Amino acid sequence: MDRYGADCCDLWFRGAGRLYDCDSxxxxxxILPSWGLCNAAATLVGQNLGAGKPERAEDSxxxxxxxxxxxxxxxxxxFLIFAAAVIGVFxxxxxxxxxxxxxxxxxxxxxxxxxYGMMMEQAFNGAGDTYTPTMVNLVCCWVLQIPLAWTLxxxxxxxxxxxxxxxxxxxTSVAILAVLLFRRGRWKQQKL
Length: 192
Hints:
The chain is mostly helical. It has seven helices and no strands.
């Protein structure tokens, strides 16, 4: 096994858990305000659909999505520039910091898309349509992301960056598909 392979195995077996903890901890904690905006929009969708005002429900989602875009884009810039420092809050192991910073940069590059994907999926939920976000996530995360991660990481030899890229592609796909489905407007016909 070459040195790269040995490093990957070492990261996988000894550092992957710490890498996952570092990235998911920083990533999850940082997007909590975004989840708050998405949940507020879901509430507005439910209230406005219940009041028979579907256009107002849609306007609420687009307005909240704009705020969410600004929030997540700002976060993306911070993570792209200060990724190592952010991961360094959770660990002092150089190998984990390097891999975690790489992961955070890849994933945060899609935050602008993620802001819309999260918002649209919560809007469906607020309308009482749980089927649509379930199918979007099934297609984008299970059918696309998992095979793409394996193909890029193992099949094409990109290693961890292949996995990080697959996550970014999947999150971008969730956003595009969710926005397209939201614009179709079938969620407005849900009876609450």
